[in-house]
Amino acid sequence: MPDSHAPQIRSMADPDARRAAAAILRAGGLVAFATETVYGLGADATDEAAVARIFEAKGRPRFNPLISHVPDMESAFALGVATPAALVVAEACWPGPLTLVLRRAEGCPIAWLTTAGLETAAIRVPGSDAARALLAEVGRPVAAPSANRSGRVSPTSAAHVAAEEFSDLELILDGGPCRVGLESTVLDVSGERPRLLRPGAVTRERIEALVGPVELASHGDAITAPGMLATHYAPSVPVRLGATALRDGETGLDFAGRLGCADDLSPRGDMVEAAANLFAHLRRLDRPGVTAIAVAPVPEAGLGAAINDRLRRAAAPRG
Ligand code: TXA
Ligand code: MG
Questions:
Q1: pTM: predicted TM-score of the whole model, two decimal places
Q2: Cis peptide leading into residue 226 (ω within 30°)
Q3: What are the sequence ranges of the domains in the chain?
Q4: pLDDT, tens digit (0-9, with 9 covering 90-100), for 203-215
């Protein structure tokens, strides 16, 4: 466990501070920064281990897919496929408090942990000039959930972020109080019809004026809680958890060498490494020739709770 220490707080208006922040991010570290909605806890979205550190710092009970932040529309549509509706709302609302869920583009470098294994990616061009300047400096998408510990309210000032006492957070970029103060609207434009997944400052009315009728995600089946609507990745074959030995026909997903198979979430039993590898491993195992997956027991401690939550979803019977 890294030592908990107070992060530095520097002005986000200071180009030197932004350069320092970008260097930390590019090296796999965590930086909190202001956006016009709320403060984000940022990491390089293309770096699985860096993203795992976000979850560890937040003490998240679950690996929800995260938003990748980019400085402009061009960067956004290099990562995700631009549907006609996506282009219209992006033109009208970016930069701003709107997140678009898009199909991952061919060769999209966003880590599988960032999108929780999904074929879609949530992408946002924030309204704050300083935030876009930071993102341009980083030159990679930055994954950033709100910079609060799990279960606490989203921070709208640098002091709020500092009060969370995140271990591993190196720097807070202080951009003053957030103008909007509410998380961005999340709109899924990856399919036929736009779906509103999370309400926010860009209203349903505004979106409908641009692209016509928008489905409310709560009209779908199953899960309805705001912010929890993302479907989750599950392999197409049966998954058996807590396996201490492989049965006939099973392919193993190991932890700490327990099963002695090649695919191991972390041979040395490191939880950050295991979290970082989880979705990439599940996807790799989901291939022709594999008919059943057996997963070694993963301890519940720390990130283990989130890993096991996702493994249980992957193993749940599907209709
Ligand atoms: O205002 C904001 O959006 C802030 C600032 C920092 O930008 N960020 C934020 O991130 O609120 P987070 O991780 O707390 O919220 C991400 C939301 C969740 O509701 C998540 O389920 C949804 O976006 N989401 C992310 N990727 C998704 C995907 N591929 N499909 C569907 N929903 C997705
Ligand atoms: Mg949040």
A1: 0.90
A2: no
A3: 8-216, 239-315
A4: 999 999 999 999 9
